[in-house]
Amino acid sequence: LIGVAKEVKDSDGGSGFSFADLAADRAGVKLGETATASEQQAALIQQKMSTITSESSFMPRIDQLPEGISKVEFKNSLEEIDSKAYTLIKDELEKRLQGCSIYN
After folding, report:
1. Are 100 and 57 in contact (CB under 8 A)?
2. 97: which residues sit within 8 A by CB, 6+ positions away?
């Protein structure tokens, strides 16, 4: 939620709303949640992290995601953060995140 609030603020005169930033936020949260779920899970994540060779193991692809969206553009194309258009992009991010090998 804090990441979304930051992006909304960025859309109002900052660098613009960034779905790539949200992808990084989600990846960090997912990694933290996974690594702290249990002692067994923590050990497994540590083992997996010691063998990764690419950030794609824990960071979803960010290609073809809307970037630098101004407040006006956001309102015109995505409407609000609970709109169907926004939810489709958010769901795509989650799908990409689930495809990262560290979480499987």
Report:
1. yes
2. 23, 26, 27, 30, 60, 103
Beta strands in 1-104 (DSSP E): none
Per the structure block, which two tokens stand in for 16? 């613009």
Q: Which among 60, 56, 61, 30 is positioned nearest to 45, based on CA atoms? A: 30
3-state secondary structure of 104: coil
**What are the tens digits of pLDDT across the range 65-99?**
999 999 999 889 888 888 999 999 999 999 999 99
Q: What DSSP designation does 81 have?
A: T
pTM of the entire structure?
0.86
pLDDT in tens, 9-33: 888 888 899 999 999 999 999 999 9
